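Structure request: 16S rRNA (cytosine(967)-C(5))-methyltransferase, Nitrosospira briensis.
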Amino acid sequence: MIKIQRLAAATVVKVLGGASLTAVLQETWRAHSDLSGQQRGAIQDLSYGVLRFYGQLDALLGFLLNKPLKDQDLRSLLLVGLYQLEYSKAAPHAVVNSAVSASRSLGGSKNKQDVGSLVNAVLRSFMRKRATLLEQAAESEVGRYSHPQWWIDRLRLQYPENYEAVLEAGNKRPPMTLRVNRRRIGVEEYLSLLSQAGMEAKLSENGVLTDAVALAQPLAVEKLPGFAEGLVSVQDEGAQMAAPLLDARSGMRVLDACAAPGGKSAHLLELAEVELTAIDNDIARVARIKQNFSRLGLEAYRVIHGDASEPAAWWDGRQFDRILADVPCSASGVTRRHPDIKWLRRESDLPRFVAKQREILDVLWQILARGGKLLYVTCSVFAEENGLQVENFLRRHADARLLPLSLVDITDGQLLPNSHHDGFFYALFHKA
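Returned structure:
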């Protein structure tokens, strides 16, 4: 457990310093290739857990220390220990003893004995005063909801009746939903394969999503029957709504303008015989699109490294019948899958996202054919990126019509995160 705690703490330090959690973990796996799958899973669980409940854990640590710690490695190790004591099933004495040993291996610690004594005292003090400390932490909204104050204030203003449910959903573990590749296998047949493998699953409760299967327990993708053979993909139920909403039909020219890693593009190809162009401005993620298409056995597509806002560099001059614009955004609707977003994002980032979204929308509208449809998508719950963006777009474009959405569970285009799906926003425009 010592190595696991130490590497999890090092991960948290880097993320709180501004790095992406996904990138840091990948870096850790490369640097420590000897880690077993179980060790990797434990490090990931601790890292995600600390960041998921960082607001609460930070408040608890503040009550337990006489003064703030300058040593960030030691501070993160204590956060990891507090998370384990409160949220894991590990034996408390094992957590404390391992954390004490791990603290003595920290490079920046001068007096190993004093450091170990501090860790022991802090964690044991939490165990003794747990109930009182948790009540104290909950007195502040950041400690209660484990989100930044500006985030809480914004959600309260925009969703006065259910902002607490949105915040609580953001701190839960996400569901694992699959999208069955109908070109390879039927849904009932795949459910049978899962059952034979001892995996409990059921059809999505959203009756419109006929290819969605919800797993009772998450598991590694390589353990899914037929995953390598392209029978199935992992895709959130909310994200699976994009392809049906776009209403792409066989023979149409379709553009996925911000496509990586390719889940929505692949779904479009699974649903109809379309001529698809998928572009993304991240060259590494473009490679992932190609890999996903190859695994799924999909054809009739072009994958291009390019910027959606600069079509002159990649567009062939023929207008598209359908455009999917899954634009860059705050990602405020997917924090349970990416808890680092809560602490890396700044309120001042929102205007930058809004400006980029506006630019992409205006440019893509010019290459959409008359009578065509454009689906605007974000994984955000903030109105500036969603409803307000749509209102401004309609004011700028007299030939744009906002169409009603055919799927259930969407109010004014906004899907709020719940036990079935993440938070998304959808707006379908028709070019008159």
